[in-house]
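FW: tagging you since you asked about this chain on Friday. Here's the raw sequence from the shared folder, copied in full. Didn't touch anything.
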Amino acid sequence: MDDHVIFRKTLKAYLSERTNFQVSLQAADFFELLGNLRETPIDVLLLDIFLPRMNGNDAVKLIRRDHPDIKIIVLSMTMDMDVIGSILDEGVQGFVSKADEPEELVAAIEAAAGNKIYRNRIFTEALYWNSQYRHRPLTQVRVQELNDREKKIIQLIWEEKSNKEIADVLYLGVRSVEKIRQEIKEKTGAASTVGVLKYAIEKRIITVALNRTGIAQ
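HL: got it, structure written out here
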């Protein structure tokens, strides 16, 4: 959803040209969106974090509460790492800049529809920023040590593997992978997959490579 009419209509026309996409609803503000979601089920939601009458973080929390199965891709012009890192903490599937090529958005939607995190450059930089400059709350639960299989699963999640792909690599059933992923969240105190990845960067379970300018890759 986005409150700029020309942008929304142009985006709808572009996405509607793709045979594997169906644009089911649009909304100019958050409360219109909530009403639409009660009537129309969707798989992936494109959401701007600068909304009329609603903070972006609060909007994601409310959508997550009422529609937990919807995958959320944030689409915004901001490049403020604090803002992006904060919204990623709410468990969205990815972040795409409005300045990116349209193909970037298509890739993000396809990843989210496949229940994957879309780990592009902005996402990686924001996770790195989170791990370096943002602090966990003092009320955080005690973290339990992860075993080698759990660490391997986190690595595969970082590589954008689906549950089915992870199951094939580790010779497990998909339900077993889902169960282990939930156990990883409980052990790390993370509320979402993004939270697990942030924890993994902090603990060097996965490594974010930096180029010469200090930008995460």
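FW: The domain at 5-120 is CATH 3.40.50.2300 (Rossmann fold).
HL: agreed, and The first helix runs from residue 5 to 16.
FW: great, closing this out.
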